[in-house]
Amino acid sequence: MLQSPMQSKSSPLTKPPGRPPKPDMVWIAGGTFLMGSDNFYPDEKPVHRVTVDGFWMDKYQVINKQFQKFVKATGYITVAERPLNPADYPGAKPEMLVPGSLVFKMTSGPVDLKDMSHWWSWVPGTCWRHPEGPGSSIKQRDHLPVVHIAYEDAEAYSQWAGGALPTEAEWEFAARGGLESTVFTWGNEPLPKGKLMANTWQGQFPWKYLKNHPPAPEPVGSYPANGYGLYDMAGNVWEWTCDWYTSQYPEDTDKPCCIPRNPRGGAMENSYDPAQPQCQIPRKVLKGGSYLCSPEYCLRYRPAARRPQMVDTGMSHVGFRCVVRGSQRLPATPAQSLSEQPTAVGGESAAIAE
């Protein structure tokens, strides 16, 4: 049974340590909350209490314009743009061992939802600059979340910008926006008063889409913020966390005597995909869901939801945002020029100002 929204309990020792480290960061006062869910997917169980300390978090997902500044300043080359090592991909076809990424493509009709190859294709030449493959670009997409970002890419950017990637517990605490045990970041109703609250799949996945544009990421801030003033904590693009994936929380994780403080997930050696023993690439936790999530296929645009992602794999629907923890401050580096943050206009408006 769905529970009524409740406020999570924040610690009195979590006041902001000064001004925001950079524009459009929000202070998330730490506290103790109920993490996970017993009502949906097995890897979200069991519900357990967790405590996190206060931290700053980006109000928006990192956008193309910001990532482009990072690349220009550092010369960084993303994982999707680098040659592949055949030894890392035993059994892969030679034509697949070229720089590229996975691109979503709608199907012409209903398909077996257990076979993702119906809608995901490896497209050589795809990367953050060319999100739909060669010939596409990020021109006039400054305020869209950057995608085709592998874990290493997100980590490199966050370090350059003076921050870090959130832990899974930090991310979920922030996504809940002060509400406890609700299904979504905004409450329990999927469409409160008929209002669409996030960029998720509308129609029948993956072949019928009811919006007036193709399924894709939308400009950050296009939907209402949660209770902490954070945008797109549900839908749009999945977001990297720094925790290694485990298929289920430990059964004894919710001992009344020992509430974990700032937990850090599992061990790297336990994160490998047991269904692909030949592929020894560890996996991190993604949170938030994406524009491809739908109730009949992937009801994961919820704060408790999680999914594993191999650290070398970026896709059309994977991005990130950064945190700065406690008294950590940004260094006086070129990263400070990231003042061109996206700004929501008109309260809950979708508009973004230059």
Summary tags:
354 residues; mainly beta; paralog of FGE (formylglycine-generating enzyme); 3 helices; disordered N terminus
Blueprint of the fold:
Blueprint: E1 6-7, E2 9-10, E3 25-28, E4 31-35, E5 48-52, E6 55-58, H1 64-74, E7 100-104, E8 120-124, H2 151-160, H3 168-176, E9 179-180, E10 203-204, E11 208-209, E12 238-244, E13 283-287, E14 307-310, E15 318-319, E16 323-325
Parallel strand pairs: 12-15
Antiparallel strand pairs: 1-9, 2-4, 3-6, 4-5, 6-16, 7-8, 10-11, 12-13, 13-14
Describe the structure.
The protein is mainly beta. Helices cover 8% and strands 17% of the residues. It has one domain: paralog of FGE (formylglycine-generating enzyme). It has helices at 64-74, 151-160, 168-176; strands at residues 6-7, 9-10, 25-28, 31-35, 48-52, 55-58, 100-104, 120-124, 179-180, 203-204, 208-209, 238-244, 283-287, 307-310, 318-319, 323-325. The strands form six sheets. Strands 14-13-12-15 form a four-stranded mixed β-sheet. A three-stranded antiparallel β-sheet has the order 2-4-5, with helices on one face. Strands 3-6-16 form a three-stranded antiparallel β-sheet, with no helix packed on it. The protein starts with 5 loop residues before the first strand and ends in a 29-residue tail after the last strand. Mean pLDDT is 88; it is low at 1-6, 8-13, 329-341 and 343-354.
Would you summarize the structure shown here?
With 354 residues, this protein is mainly β.
